[in-house]
Known about the structure:
Chain A is of the alpha/beta class. Chain A has helices spanning 48-55, 78-86, 105-116, 124-134, 151-163, 181-198, 209-215, 233-238, 243-250, 293-297; strands at residues 6-17, 20-32, 37-41, 63-68, 71-72, 88-91, 169-173, 201-206, 218-223, 226-232, 303-305, 308-310.
Amino acid sequence: MTVPLLEVRDLVKHYRAHGTVIRAVDGVSRDIAAGETLGLVGESGSGKSTVGRTVLRLEPLTSGSVRFDGNDLGSLSSAALRATRRRMQLVFQDPGGALNPRRRVGDAIAEGMRIHRTVAPGAIRDRVIALLEEVGLAASDADKRPHQFSGGQRQRIGIARALAVEPALLVCDEPVSALDVSVRAQVLNLLLELRERRALAYLFIAHDLAVVQQVAHRVAVMYLGTIVETGQARTVIGAPRHPYTRALVSAIPHPDPARASERIVLAGEQPSPAKPPPGCPFEPRCFHPAKDARCRHERPALEGLGERRVACHHERVD
Amino acid sequence: MTPLLEVTNLSIGFANPEPITAVDDVSFRIDRSEVIALVGESGCGKTLTGLAIPGLLPSEARTSAGSRVVLDGNDLVGMPEAARRRIRGARIAMVFQDPQASLNPVMRVGDQVIEAIRAHGPVPRAEARTRAAALLEEVGIADAAARLDAWPHELSGGMRQRVMIAIALAGAPVLLLANDPTPARDVTIQAQSLELLDRLRRARGLAVLLITHDLGIVASRADRVLVMYAGRIIESAPTAELFRVPRHPYTRGLLAAVPRVDAPESRLEAIAGSVPQPGRWPPGCRFHPRCPVAIARCGTEAPSMEPAEGPHHTACWVATGAGS
Lengths: 318, 324
């Protein structure tokens, strides 16, 4: 069996604030194969963005491991870590905020090539132009500044910048949620094209299940720092098993009112990661008819057959 | 029957540095107990339109002569500010997106609701407190009487949102303006919020103007949808009708651009180009540079709203057959 591109094992990220421990990520394991897209879905506070940031080593992890191409990022020398990190790049939610307003777009795109010396200095300009064209912009855009572009174009620039150092994995953190609805589809289509052309893998972090289904091969649904359900995107969204996933799927706005299906409105809110429930993290809001004392006391493991897994005492995948 | 609210020829602009039109000749009506969704993308003018109804536009905004906002027969635009303020508080309730910024962090939740109640009329404090508890209960806050003494930071985001709605209900509103009532990323909280608005509408007979960028939210909640693009309403229809046969190419594009769970495709149909911001609107129909079916006339002459079929109206030369 080939080694997955990314292997995340028992990832834990706790923050300490004012004497309390905030369990932002509490034991997450997942692989991403080369060329594969994993959609990481959850609401704010679920820990999904923290997973992305710790995978990229933008933040140290509390425990667990992240392997890229079989190498444990925690045990690499700083030179080797830098070389590895070149191959995993981040696409931000707010492309405007991620670009220096005073810098020409071409320079922003070239920055990574200069730092990692992946392209000879004399060839950088041509490379920048090729990247701009690849993401649907024009060669002349290299000399403009970020404010001259629309939100969708700035996101294209953000993508070009990430691609400049020839990554194998893009961590896309809510890449289209700040964009106008009418331009979201353009950017999603671009991400799909790039994936085909460059055999890129994506860790696609989003709150919108419909968007995730559009791009992801597999999904992992997070709640309060843990994965509660995972599997093929089509299966998980088409036939969700975990009560939380069922509620999320039912909340997807349906553009056709006549076909809107069962609507589950959950009671309450996600508990604070500083004070997670002792048992199943979803228990306080759970509407499963079989919910019992065990749910209150024992945290269910993520179990199942093959890649289809559910963390619920009362749902089995078979 | 006269409508509850009638907005006629509303135009809003900004003077500096150069005159810019942000809302251009918008007209619509809301009946009692009706839920209307005003949908559009950034810069389309939907939020300014909402703010103009209670007269809460930013001070640098100018409403052009001829704009009328008539609530229950009273024109709010021509009214002196003092009179308008009375109506604003008592008859029009507003809920905005960020409850964090709208609640006073150093005042107990109950006191803020009580303050709102007493602003509408002389009510003894003890009675106002009882009413405040009832309001919190009405918006779904458990253990409402005890929550009166909580500080805003002790409540979750969803609870703060509910407190804001309770404050909005302190008068005797007939119209609720809800501007993107919840951040979209809290999917399950958003579902709760919409459920609450729906319940209030039924229980109190409130009319609701739901201002949002998300057509999907609208689908199951609104009676009628108004679609705005570049400062104008370009389509107006009963909700089911709009989704069944969207007439304007922009509305059709928006619907096609939203991923659908029931019909996953590997590629989405995208609308080309980007949303033009105020001051950069093209001549003619403002959608024509992005429009897949535009004809010559679209580039020079702006279409006005015309009936497409029954109560369905749209501003499009091609859709209304006036292009030939």
